[in-house]
Design a protein that fits this description.
The chain is mainly alpha-helical. The chain has helices spanning 6-10, 16-28, 32-40, 47-59, 69-72, 81-90, 94-106, 109-121, 128-134, 140-153, 157-168, 172-185, 191-198, 204-214, 222-235, 250-258, 264-282, 292-306, 313-319, 325-338, 344-353, 357-370, 385-394. Among the domains are: 6-152, no CATH class; 320-395. The radius of gyration is 27 Å and the shape is elongated.
Length: 395
């Protein structure tokens, strides 16, 4: 930590009286610079200390100093949002709410973020238009607070609109914005349309995280949970942080599916998980900046996977006959990455008989990786020019 001011350091004093006194001084004197210093160092402060600081500040908000909190809203810090908002709510009246409404309309995004959270507790219907307006903005603390507050209001105007975009929209950037909003809104009824979008989305990792924020893997119907878990594995560690292993219950979920009857798809996922975590363990670049807890979880997961025996490669041949194109594509990726030549006949069959252009390309790419002679292709049947160019590059 690199505090520039002694009074900011005093906030973390083990002496409760000293810490309380400093909180009161900062509030009474409207010391925005001290608050800024605190926010700049927040990532280095333990969570339990942040909780104590929030509590001490809130205890020292009084009738005489609560309006000073409005000056603090120029600096947004999620870790210390609690005492500012609850301090204002503590003395809420019609005049203060009018002031907050004006700040919500004319203030900076940082100020608006606090205002949106204020209306989570003080449900003034005059704030609804502003909440809807900013629920899709690019400043995530503001959009998140707006979505949460709209849910608290039980206002579903924007919710219904974003569900419609997710189901029938054509722009993926609009759809992923809908996913972010629906995640923040927090209604589990959005799970199924978000799941359907995950299967075709170019932002798979983002949608997986959104789904797992609504439901845990153990709450989700088994087949859907397996598909989500497969996409989660694909997203580690480049697109989703390995710090999520514990909150997503990855180790416990693997123990659960290991104990189940080994369908071809479960066998495929276990093979893939073992390869993925071996790769992570063998490359320090993936783990050097992780927390101690995440590193221990990776070791524990590797032990869990090592306890599962069996040759999974034969199950890939069955999965290549699946009707679900996404599953076939995923299996082809794994077969190629792991150079599983035992599947070459099934892969060649796909390259000649599939109607899916992506599967045709991935089949040919797998055969080339195996060192097999590529079958002659009628390129005229490939409509997508980009895929056609990729196929031509293989010959």
């Amino acid at each position: 930590m690199d505090f520039k001011r002694q009074n900011t350091k005093n906030l973390m004093s083990k002496d409760l009286n000293a810490a309380n006194k400093e909180c009161k001084n900062i509030l009474d004197n409207c010391d925005v610079e001290a608050f800024s210093d605190l926010c700049e160092n927040s990532e280095f402060i333990f969570d339990f200390i942040k909780t104590k600081i929030n509590k001490n500040f809130l205890n020292n908000v009084t009738q005489d100093n609560y309006l000073n909190l409005l000056k603090f809203t120029k600096i947004y810090c999620e870790d210390f949002e609690d005492f500012i908002v609850k301090g204002l709510v503590k003395f809420a009246d019609e005049d203060l709410t009018d002031n907050i409404l004006e700040l919500f309309e004319n203030g900076s995004y940082e100020e608006k973020a606090y205002c949106a959270k204020y209306f989570y507790y003080i449900q003034d219907p005059l704030s609804l238009d502003l909440l809807r307006e900013y629920a899709l903005c690019d400043f995530s603390p503001l959009s998140y607070n707006c979505a949460q507050t709209l849910n608290k209001f039980e206002d579903r105007v924007l919710y219904d609109k974003e569900i419609e975009i997710l189901k029938n929209g054509e722009d993926d950037f609009e759809k992923i914005k809908a996913v972010y909003f629906l995640t923040s809104f927090g209604d589990k009824n959005a799970f199924n349309p978000m799941y359907d979008y995950m299967k075709i989305s170019p932002f798979t990792g983002d949608v997986v995280e959104a789904l797992l924020s609504l439901k845990s893997l153990f709450e989700i119907e088994e087949n859907k949970a397996l598909i989500i878990f497969n996409n989660l594995l694909d997203s580690y560690p480049e697109f989703i942080s390995l710090e999520t292993l514990i909150p997503y219950n990855v180790g416990e979920y693997l123990k659960t599916i290991i104990s189940k009857e080994k369908t071809p798809y479960i066998s495929y996922i276990l093979f893939k998980a073992k390869s993925k975590f071996n790769l992570i363990l063998d490359n320090e670049i993936y783990t050097y900046d992780l927390s101690k807890e995440a590193k221990e979880e990776i070791k524990e997961i590797s032990k869990v996977l090592a306890s599962d025996s069996g040759n999974r490669e034969n199950n890939f041949k069955e999965l290549l006959k699946e009707n679900d194109a996404k599953i076939v594509e995923n299996v082809l990726d794994t077969i190629t990455d792991e150079n599983i030549k035992s599947c070459k006949d099934e892969v060649k069959h796909l390259s000649l008989n599939s109607d899916n252009e992506i599967i045709i390309y991935k089949s040919l790419n797998a055969l080339k990786t195996f060192g097999e002679e590529l079958p002659q292709m009628e390129l005229d049947k490939i409509q997508n020019e980009n895929i056609k160019a990729l196929i031509e590059s293989l010959y």
